[in-house]
């Protein structure tokens, strides 16, 4: 046989790294960049909320409304990104580079098309859309101004999520961090300039987000064009077979359920909170952003775990998948417990930083935040279980678990509890749903670990 080309040598080195590096070191190394990028994203989400909150209670309520819209955009991007990325990871683990390139190209260009469709239809019906998402009459003007610019950025946001997920699933999370992280930092800088400096209000926050997402897209695309990925994005490689699209959507279905239901749950939360006034909507909006910030650490760590699980599962190194799963659960639970304790103690002070002059927002938000902190450590188990099943191609079981948190448990609770307990039901619906999700996840996780033991 002849000597390996430079590309083949690079791929072989990457293969050895993913299948031979000690698991704790590999997961941690891959997780750090994803944690940073997730935390930066969460911080700029909080920055949006913080700066907009200076405009009034109705304005900060609009952030919660548009968060539901962004969850729809994320649902499209992450579904195609995780679906194609997981398939890429499995093919690379099996050294099937051509199939990996086909999956990546199909996911990327599909994201652009679906993002454009959302832009067109959402822009045509922006005001009714904001009302459906839970905007009250006083919140609607702010939500409309915010939402119209986010809709314009939908195609590049969807495509960016796909590229970021492909990098992660290849085990190159640092490259994904460069794109997403840079955009997030830029957003934080631009927010006060556009909101206050240029006097654009909530529209300024949306424009800052759209511009920052565009910068992220450009950085990630340049990295692909320069060959930093093991796959290429070629329109000529987009699959003409329906099965490829079905495989991508099926593999990404847990993410679609998770993200799609997050949007639906956010709408249900906004609608039920609106029954108790703008203060309740604003309080739950702030709590939602704070919990996303805390959860992003676990999500980032889990995203470092996924390529390790997927790659080694494809390479039939089941002992490494087993070790990675247990390690991620342990570290995730400990980290989330520490975060939860700190935020529980300082909950009122944290809410006061957002709406210092609104005692009702502070009181409602602090109670909901503390209730959520009591159960947040459980997400170390539930998140890892879901990601382990998804990254090893067990989409059916992963989809069911993804349905649990925001769908099977949260939606009935948010619809029923407030009828009997008033605003307390709005505050406690998510924590109770998280407890139920833990109980549902444990049997699936134990069965997965036992199966890995048998396959070793």
From TrEMBL:
Q: Which Pfam families match?
A: MatE
Membrane topology classification: Multi-pass membrane protein
A single Gene Ontology MF term assigned here is:
antiporter activity
- Compartments reported by the entry: Cell membrane
Specify the superkingdom: Bacteria
What main location does UniProt list?
membrane
* Protein name, entry field: Multidrug export protein MepA
According to the UniProt record, one GO cellular component term is: plasma membrane
Single biological process term from Gene Ontology: response to antibiotic
PANTHER family linked: MULTIDRUG EXPORT PROTEIN MEPA (PTHR43823:SF3), SPORULATION PROTEIN YKVU (PTHR43823)
Q: Which NCBIfam families match?
A: matE
Q: Which organism is it from?
A: Eisenbergiella massiliensis
Key words, A-Z = Antibiotic resistance, Cell membrane, Membrane, Transmembrane, Transmembrane helix, Transport
Into which family does the record put it? Belongs to the multi antimicrobial extrusion (MATE) (TC 2.A.66.1) family. MepA subfamily.
Q: Which residues cross the membrane?
A: 26-47, 59-81, 102-126, 146-167, 174-197, 203-225, 261-286, 292-315, 327-347, 367-388, 400-420, 432-449
Q: What is this organism's lineage?
A: Bacteria, Bacillati, Bacillota, Clostridia, Lachnospirales
